[in-house]
Structure formats: structure tokens, C-alpha cells
Amino acid sequence: MAHCMGYFIIVLSVLAISPLCSSAKTYGGGYIYPQFYDHSCPKAQEIVKSVVAQAVAKEPRMAASLLRLHFHDCFVKGCDASLLLDSSGTVISEKRSNPNRNSARGFEVIDEIKAALEKECPHTVSCADILALAARDSTVLTGGPSWEAPLGRRDSLGASLSGSNNNIPAPNNTFQTILTKFKLQGLDIVDLVALSGSHTIGNARCTSFRQRLYNQSGNGQPDYTLDQSYAAQLRTNCPRSGGDQNLFFLDFVSPIKFDNSYFKNLLAYKGLLNSDEVLVTKNAVSRELVKKYAYNQELFFQQFAKSMIKMGNISPLTGNRGEIRRICRRVNAY
Questions:
Q1: Which end of the chain has fewer CB atoms at under 10 Å, N or C?
Q2: Catalytic sites, residue numbers
Q3: What does the pLDDT read at residue 23?
């Protein structure tokens, strides 16, 4: 996801919506709630926000990268920072999976946040919570909504390469496959459409949508649900072979601003990924939601915040389960 369009960030002086509040009881019997670190590490959220702001100011693309890390973490074994583990000993890193290889990024920013937090309040703030906060702050810094992120997750002791390969929706999945993957996480069609709206920022690689340009159904024909003038423009930098890593804005209208342009693009058949456009072409319910969000940005912002809280509540480790890693890339040595 990386064309740099100047070193700037959009800071909201007034939030687009009132911050939402939520606490969630988890199946382990513990709670996650926004005030979790108020006494044990009162500056935690301020520290995360500061490091994220510096990273996004330096490279606007980083906001989308950090938001995506939280998503790719939560869809595999729950929101437990399993994605952050490097391969070592018995751990086979999720970074090697198809959705993450040559694609997931921002790990150095997470490392920087963790180092600052360990200095301020050692062995207190989990890597899983850092991912949740970084995702929220990245959304706000690029012009999107804010919410009170429930906290108190703990970090996993392992990773799941197979879970990463199988659970994360892929750009070429059918609508039904994508919806099923969301439902397996306790999310519904409203969450699917709202969270897809995160593609209002960030980039995708040529390899993730090439088939739409040249061979959508295996018959040598392009995807005719893609606006053909837009397709011609894409072909100039995404050839039939080669250029796999060439980057394209997911939302070419306002690529580093979190807004509802993504949904407007879908209605004009200018969604970049197949997984984007099927929201309009393959299901009546999702199509109506796309229309609502295209016409009403505030409605999209409100639902995005709700869906992010809901996604952040997927199977967190609480109580005595898991650990608080000292370094996010590896489990603690005892």
C-alpha cells in the first residue's frame, strides 16, 4: 500500500462521531474494557497515539498498514497478537502465510510502541492491545471516526500459519466465501460491508487483482463488472505478467483520507479488488448497505466504529491465559 503524497496527516479537531464505549465479557470469564490501563499505565494510550502519529506523518500509507495488522490478527485465533510472532522454536510465523507474505507491514512501528511502553510501565501493556489502539489511532489520524477501544487482552503463546492461510478473506474469494469467513468470527453482513470500508485508505498489489484485468473466469476475458476505462488505466502498470508488487490505491479518489469515497467508487464499478466489487454485484443486502454508506458518511463512520469494537472482541485471551510479551516478536523466556 505505498505511494507517498507528501508528509502530512489530517488531524481531527472535532471527531466525526461521539466516541463509542464498549466492554465485552469473553468466553474465558474475563472482561476487556477501555479503562483497563487507567491505573497500571495511565499514559499507555497517549504513547501509542504519539508513535502512530509520527509514523503516519512520515509515511501516510502506514495508517492502512497498521489497521490491516489488527484485522489479520483478529481473524486468526482471535485478537491475541499471534500475527506478530516471528518463526522460532515451535512457532511457525503467520507472517509467512499467503495473505501476509510480502504484504503485511508496520511491524517496526509496533516494536517502537512496545519499547516505549516497556520503558514507561514494564510488562503491563499487551501487544494485542497495542494492535487495537494503533488501528483506532490510524483511523482517526486519516480523518475517520474514533471509538473507545476495549482493552485487557493478553498475548498468545503460539501462532497458526494454517489459520492465517484459511481464515483471512482473499481478494479473489467469492462473496459467499468472504461472508462465511466473517460469520465464523461472529461477524455479520453489516460488519463485512462496514469493515470493507477500511479500503478507503491503503494500497493493493497488482498480483491481488490481475485476474480481473485479463482472465477473470479462466476464459481469457476480463471482469466486465469493472469499469473498462478504469481497467485500461490499471493495465498500464499491472501487465499480464511481471510487476506483481506494483502498488495501486484501493481508493483512487482520496487514497490517504478515511472517508466514504470507497463506497462511491463501488457504485461506479471502480472497486479495485474483486472482493470489493462483489459487495455491489453479488448480494442485494450488501448492495443496499454500500448505497447507504455512499450517501451517508456519518452512518458509515458510526457502523465502522461499532464493527471495529466487535472485531476487537474476537476471542481475546484474558485472566491468566496467554502472557504479556516483553517483545512482540517472540514469546517470553521463563
A1: C
A2: 72
A3: 52
